[in-house]
Amino acid sequence: MIMYFLASYLLGNVLTAWWVGKFYKTDLRHHRSGNLGARNAGAVIGKSAFLLTFLGDALKGVLVIFAGRYFGFEEWAVAMGGLLVICGHMFPFWLKGKGGKGIATFVGIGLTFNLLFAFAFIVVFLVALLFIRSATLSMIFGYFAYIGSVIYLNEILDAWPIVVAILFIMYRHRFDFKQSFDEQKWKRS
């Protein structure tokens, strides 16, 4: 199991945006937000870079969950693999802890760990998006719906590592949330 945990973290260190940037001869760390994620790749390079980065990062999450289930690990251990792949993505050792923000990797984990939790996230995110018209702010509601469904279905003992991953992701997005909130206030005034 220790090897699974280590492999999960190391797989997280494979930052798709870094490789996409290399392909396009662009170091995304020196453009716009400097973030090695799909959003920055799309903003700097274009839609194809966004899509490649998003799919590559989401695939990391899918692979970790599938691997944990393949080896028959308990659910909490599979969830821990999910947390560690996100930690590897957000805090890669080879880039001094400056990686992506974890959304795409979370999407891969969310869709494969438990579909009910993912469904709660998606429904609440979409409903919030209708009213707020900000994907960034709607994510907050989606994350709380995911955590709420974990608690409501009494799965906290198995899913707590993913809840911790969500808290990490939300912390990394704190400035994005504030910026989007300020933009919303400006639009309404």
Our estimate of the beta-strand percent is: under 5%
N-to-C order of helices and strands: HHHHHHHHHH
- Regarding quaternary structure, what we see is single chain
- What is the percent of helical residues? over 70%
Uncertain parts: none
Rg calculated over all Cα atoms: 16 Å
Q: Mind explaining what this structure looks like?
A:
The structure is a single chain. The chain is mostly helical. The chain has one domain. The chain is about 75% helix and about 0% strand. It has helices spanning about 1-10, 15-25, 40-45, 45-70, 75-90, 105-115, 115-130, 135-150, 155-170, 175-189. About 45% of the residues are buried.
Set out the fold topology.
Elements: H1 2-12, H2 16-23, H3 38-44, H4 47-70, H5 75-90, H6 103-113, H7 115-132, H8 135-152, H9 156-172, H10 174-188
Helix pairs in contact: 1-4, 1-5, 2-4, 3-4, 4-5, 4-6, 5-6, 5-9, 6-7, 7-8, 8-9
EC number: 2.3.1.275
Family: Belongs to the PlsY family.
Subcellular location: Cell membrane
In short:
About 75% of the residues lie in helices and about 0% in strands. The protein is mainly α. The protein has one domain (about 1-189).
